Amino acid sequence: MLLSLYIFNCATLIVSILFSLHTPLPFLFTALLLLGSITVIHFFLVLLKNPLISFNVSRTLWLMIDYFDSEHQATVPRQEWMRERLPADYWERGTQSRKSKQQWFKVNIGILMERMRQNDSANLHVLQRMVGCEGETQPDGTLRFVRGVHMYSYDGDDFLSFDDRSGVWVAPTPEAQPTKRKWDGVQVLKEYTKGYLENECIDWLSKFVYYGQKKGTEAHPHRLYDTFTAKTTKSFQAACFTLWGLKG
Fold this sequence. Notes:
Blueprint: E1 2-14, E2 27-35, E3 38-47, E4 52-55, E5 61-69, E6 74-77, H1 80-85, H2 88-115, E7 124-137, E8 143-154, E9 157-163, E10 168-170, H3 177-184, H4 187-214, E11 228-231, E12 239-246
Parallel strand pairs: 1-3, 2-12
Antiparallel strand pairs: 1-7, 2-3, 4-11, 5-6, 5-12, 7-8, 8-9, 9-10
């Protein structure tokens, strides 16, 4: 059986509100796990600055297992088996990590806008990131790494991706070349990226599948979602959550 784990990150900015590093830009983190002949876990990180954005996270149904939003600034479990299995420091580390990623997206969407000379006042710009891995179940129940994915897109177009076989970044557009050169020049970053995809990502996939199956989540999910909508009024809000899903 082939199992997959993916992380999605998205930063969205409406330029009609002038970009400023002092302006709070909320953030979304999502993990999705799909069980069946192919098991998938997705993590979404989204930075929002829009009165109304709707995210269709899947064409199937998903179960929420943890949640983070920029208003409350805390990662919390939404399934009892997550609360039981994972210690308190897991949630604290998750909170700190998501706060850090929020700032990373805030800075880098501004860098890309400057690089592409996007100082207009009417456009919506989106920076997305996907990180993930696929593993194949072995006879002894362990997972064997099959493929890793770490890629970025900007305004819907491919921007940069990591080739986990050769260990280098691939830039399909001229605008991405400066980032490719910079990141290729940092050996420790390439080693970390490759190591995460081949080891840590697979480890987390194995754990989440095991935890959910022990609680019977695969057969009896009790709350399902297929879309997420982020709404804001005068203040900006975003949410981070983890979803578990079944392939019907």
